[in-house]
Every structure is written in C-alpha cells, then in structure tokens.
Amino acid sequence: MDNREAIGSWLSGPRAAAQEMGADFGYRGKRLGLPEEGSGSIAPVGRRVGALFIDWALCALIAYGLLAGRRLEGTNNWALVVFVVMSILTVGTVGCTPGKRLLGLRVIALDGLGRLPMWRAVVRTVLLGLAIPALIWDRDNRGLHDRLSGSVQVRI
Predict the structure, then answer these.
(1) Least buried of 75, 81, 101, 115, by fewest C-beta within 10 Å?
(2) Alpha-carbon dihedral of residues 21, 22, 27, 30, nearest 10 degrees?
(3) Which helix (H) or strand (E) holds 72?
C-alpha cells in the first residue's frame, strides 16, 4: 500500500475503510427494520435540523411575547422552558412538534407501538434539552436521546 492510499483511508474514516474491506453496512435504518426510502424511512439530518430551528423560533417568539416581558435578555431562558414543554406535549400526544410536522417528520417508538409513550417522550425531551446527547449519533443517524428513549425520527 502506498502512502496516498493510507492517507485516503484515514481521511475517509473507519466506515469507508471497513467498506473497502468488504463490510456491508446497508442503508441507514436497515438494522432497525425501516425502509430505505419514502414514508417510514430515517429522517434526513437537514430536515431534522430545519425542524429544530422552526420549533426554536416559535418557542422564542412565544417566550418573547408572553413570558420574558418583551426583554431580549430573558427570552432564550424562557424559550428553552417553552421548547421542553411543547416537545413533551406534542411528541407525547401526536408524535411530532410543529416544525417536524411542517417538514414531514414524526417520532415513533422502535418497539412497534407507533406513537412514543408520554414517559419516553419526557426522557427524550429532557435529554434533547441537555444538547450533548443529541450531538452523539450512531450509524443510523439516531442521537443518543433517541437511542435512550427507544425512538427514531422518520418521514411521514
């Protein structure tokens, strides 16, 4: 192996190196029994981030207008409270937040229950509010908050 090949495998990461050696990872969601494309497939990262921005903007608007006394310095603290309450109520009842619904996403339980039970929605949202678990992903693009709550975000 010449040095360029070694550097290339290092830059492309362990997944690409394992695939070159014959490992078959399949598509994202295959291990979970989800379809590759269409309804019920793993939600793309871009849509998930977009939904998060829509939800945060809505929560910040509510916090600014109703809770922070129209003071910008207190808005983000109240926005986090509104975000946690909104996420628990909407994911625990209808399976998606307003931002997820606008972008065609929902949160489902992996054990075949469909909608995520309320107590698992609480676990998921509290971990999401801490931010760090949401930044640690597996090869199916599921954050640690989704793994610990037994949920996955899919396309509608």
Answers:
(1) 81
(2) -120
(3) helix 72-93
Tokens 């910008």 correspond to 72
Q: Give 9's contacts (C-beta < 8 A, 6+ positions apart).
A: 16, 17, 20
Are residues 42 and 143 in contact, defined by beta-carbon separation less than 8 angstroms? Answer: no
Per-residue model confidence (pLDDT) at position 76: 86
The whole-angstrom separation of Cα 144 and Cα 133 is 5
pLDDT tens-digit profile of 62-111? 999 998 788 888 888 899 999 999 999 999 999 999 999 999 999 999 88
106 forms bridges with which residues in the sheet? 154
DSSP string, 104-116: TEEEEETTTTEEP
